Amino acid sequence: MNIPSLSAFQDFHNSYQQYVSLCLFVGLLFAVGFNRFHGRGLHLRFRLWHIILVALVVRLPLMFQNYWYDETFTSTLVSASWLDMFTAISGDVHPPLYYAFVKAFTTVLGHSDFVMRLPALLSGLHIVWGVYLLGKDHGGEQVGRWSALIVALLPAMSYYSSEARYPMFLGATLLFSYLSIREQQYKSASFGLAIASWSHVNGWFYVGVMLVYLFWTSRKLWTVALPTFAIGVWLPFALNQSGDVIDGFWLQQSNPLRFLVDMSITTRFSDWSLNVVMLIVAVVMAILFIALWRWRSQVNGWWLALVVIPPSLQWFVGLVWHPIYLERTMIFSMLLLVVPVAWYLSKQGSRIIVGLALISILSGLGSLYTGDRSNMDDVITECEGRKVYAVNTYTAVHASHYTDADVMVYEDSNSTAQQLPMEARKALWDVVALDELDNDTCLLAQVDAYTKPEQLEHIQYLSIAPMIIEINRHAYWVVGK
Fold first, then answer.
1. DSSP assignment, residue 387?
2. What is the largest CA-CA distance in the chain?
3. In this structure, are residues 252 and 7 in contact, taking their beta carbons and an 8 Å threshold?
4. Is 467 helix (H, G, I), strand (E, B) or coil?
């Protein structure tokens, strides 16, 4: 079995960082050339409800794709009882609010792939409406409409609006809070920031900046009390969870501007190294750079702080401690950057620029539609009708979502890609020793760069007739009967 080494995986990550840097550099060069295409601006005739309908149509096909690992983790947690779910969450690296939100949906509407993705879809549509208000506030009706249309079509926004995870929910609550501060609705802003603080720990970087903005604007100490209390309550759990990050979390240090690429056109192409893909991404970056240059005289200090500070802090923490840079937690920064692009298109844009942007966006959407997130059918079929014995938590999570079988896990089932304490594993699965297995058991294991040597020995010992199935360039699955 040819198992990629961790150094090989890191080399792949480094090559990706070089690709991002190259896209940004080429985009900057394109911006110099494209900048000469002046226009009188383009009038957008679509009404807001037309744009929201477009956003819904763009996102719906993605709602029926297979679940990838992170989504199966959501599914596994919300399938457990409320008590077991919170026990498992306390051993993970995320606050509980989004999982509780999804579980409430499944309790009312039933447990299905579509229902678990529904909160993200609704958050994404809410963002389209919120960005319209944001753009309108910064430049009038046409800027608002262009802002909404851009978010409706951006591939990254479509992807995360159809993912059973937190990014769009976090982005929506931060956008709601920001708009509330600008409208001097301080109670709403305080409530929104409290919700955001329990959606993802990396959201605290945005919450911190916005708390300063909120206090600076309101001059009232009570406005920051609720979000500060919410962070304080979860802080001990977050400090405990940080041990998993130190012990071997999968994140690697990233280019500080990576979110500009990943949260716009996305890099979820079949092969992102293709030169044509680089050009597609570079065109979008060029339009962003031109818009920022033309909009520079209208930059608001708090807008700039929220675009720059949270991503920069995540990158800096990775330098001095451990990598925590997670671009999908930076959707809010991308939403703010949409406004100058919308302003540019409505005030000074030309048909050439809009045409180039549209080709790039449609290429990104086409890649999302023709690809798939993770297809586990070939693997799970081999275990049909049997109990599943998972050698690591990664495979246990997949099995819990894709099968109705009883799932058991190996005693030392943690890997550096997914770590859960024993209490969390017992809340989700049966922890079973080797000598307790019977013959009616299907061994399921992922073997990759993060597999521990002792786990590999365990897999080889148990595999009587292994089947090796390659799912993607980094994951290999062994099914033993």
1. E
2. 76
3. no
4. strand
Spatial distance between the Cα atoms of 76 and 213, rounded to a whole number of angstroms? 38
pLDDT tens-place string over residues 1-45: 555 565 666 676 777 788 888 889 999 998 988 887 777 788 888
Q: Is the pLDDT of residue 450 over 70?
A: no
Q: Which of 306, 365, 312, 363 is nearest to 335 (CA)?
A: 306
User: Long-range contacts made by residues 3-7, C-beta under 8 angstroms, separation at least 24?
Assistant: 3/447, 3/448, 3/449, 3/451, 3/456, 3/476, 4/448, 4/449, 4/474, 5/449, 6/449, 6/450
> How far is it, in rounded angstroms, from Cα 125 to Cα 60?
12
Amino acid making up residue 27 = G
- By residue count, the chain amounts to 481
φ, ψ of residue 388 to 5 degrees: the values are -110, 130
Residue 458 pLDDT exceeds 70: no
* Lowest-confidence pick of 53-57, 204-208, 246-250, 301-305: 246-250
User: Quick one: angle between helices 97-109 and 113-139, nearest 10?
Assistant: 120
In this structure, the number of other CB atoms found within 10 A of the CB of residue 300 comes to 12
State pLDDT tens for residues 275-314: 778 888 899 999 999 999 999 888 889 999 999 999 999 9
Query: Nearest-CA neighbor of 300 among 410, 160, 139?
Result: 139
Amino acid at 56: L
Six token digits for residue 382 = 């081999």
How far is it, in rounded angstroms, from Cα 126 to Cα 136?
15
Residue 4: its pLDDT value, please? 55
Name the one residue in this structure whose structure tokens are 């911190």: 208
In whole angstroms, give the CA distance from residue 244 to residue 424: 13
Is the pLDDT score of 339 beyond 60?
yes
* pLDDT over 60 at 465, yes or no: no
Nearest to 89 by CA among 199, 179, 4, 232: 199
Q: Percent helix, strand, coil in the chain (nearest 5)? A: 65, 5, 25
**Where are the domains positioned within the chain?**
22-370, 377-480
Chain Cα centroid distance, residue 448: 22
Is the pLDDT higher at 113 or at 394?
Answer: 113
Asked if residue 172 lies in contact with residue 127, where contact means CB atoms within 8 angstroms, the answer is yes
Q: φ and ψ at 470, to 5 degrees?
A: -90, 120
Amino acid found at 367: S
**Alpha helix (H) residue ranges in 321-465:** 331-347, 351-370, 377-381, 393-402, 422-428, 453-462
